[in-house]
Amino acid sequence: MAVDEKRFIQDLHKLRQFGAAGVGKGVIRPAYSEADIAARRWLAERMTEAGLTPHFDPVGNLFGLADGPSLLMGSHSDSQPEGGWLDGALGVIAALEVARSSDQPISVVSFQDEEGRFGVTTGSAVWSGGLAVAQADKLTDHTGETFGSARAAMADLAAGFVDPDQFTGFVEMHIEQGPSLDAQGDQIGVVTDIVGIRDMVVQFDGQQNHAGTTPMHLRRDAFQALSLFNTRLNEQFRNVVTPQTVWTIGHVDVHPGASSIVPGRVRFSMQWRDGDSDRLARMDEIIRTTAQGVAEEMGMGLSFGSLLGLAPVAMDQSLRGVLEDAAEQIAPGRWRLMPSGALHDATNVSRSMPVAMLFVPSIDGISHDFAEETAEADLIAGLKVLECAVQKLTSGM
Question: What stretches of the chain show up as alpha helix (H) in DSSP?
């Protein structure tokens, strides 16, 4: 077994061309977009060349299947609305390179909609049995398009769902998407556990009115309700969260969105993450109670969308141990154990098989941005750790 480092880097750049945008190496390749589907077709061709059998399932997950039982490796190839070239793509291309270089059966996967255009890691959630197709089809993106409508664009490629029982485990390589490895000068991170996540939409309904003639004390300004909610939420969380807990209001839709109209409605995303399930539940309670208090005080209507989320997941000890040994062999003294504050498909896959994850540094901790980047030497080090780990697994340690 000998991975081809040059081919690996070249394929990363080829995949980047699908949806290339912005400055540097930026990518716009959201799930089911023309760029996303074209990228998946290209990946299917590379899988065939590697001796794998490409298989698209009903929701657009792409598998490159080896014959018989195999280790599954990969990640996702869709991107954020303004994303970087390595997020997800690195894990898919690294898995492909290991698969075509190994004399052992390695299957490859690129899960669909990991970035959550419609939900939370939607493709792997459906495949792993955590989300029914009928339920997924009702999910909508920020424009109102449904998951069911979007996946119809891949109907000509779709076959049945792949049986998870044919895989012995799942290993996912990814950029860290945070500053820890880069700041410490480490080259490899072996993940101990993946944080849990909760995500829902909240809506305040006030009264749309004229911005010039409506006195301030008579307004029912929905945006002001959001502003007050955000301030109070930070205060309410103070004695509940830890330094590792995060929460984000990332998408805000103000209606009607005109400079001379008092906003009558504001709809916004609310997401929070933590490694403790009880804390996630407590935060949910605080969010709802705080929003209700604001709504009552300001005379607002209030509604909540469906609560989506995944529980924290610990990595498989055996697979993790193999990655640790491989990391020490390839990057002695330059690797560390670490949790993942970002969500990954491995969380869903853990329902069906043992899982493990490997990180490489993100320069300055930047991700979900056109400026996302990792040094080429670190990309190759991650690939070599995967290669070494596969050798250890297939040799029985």
Answer: 5-16, 34-49, 89-101, 122-127, 133-136, 147-151, 180-184, 222-237, 277-298, 317-330, 346-349, 376-394
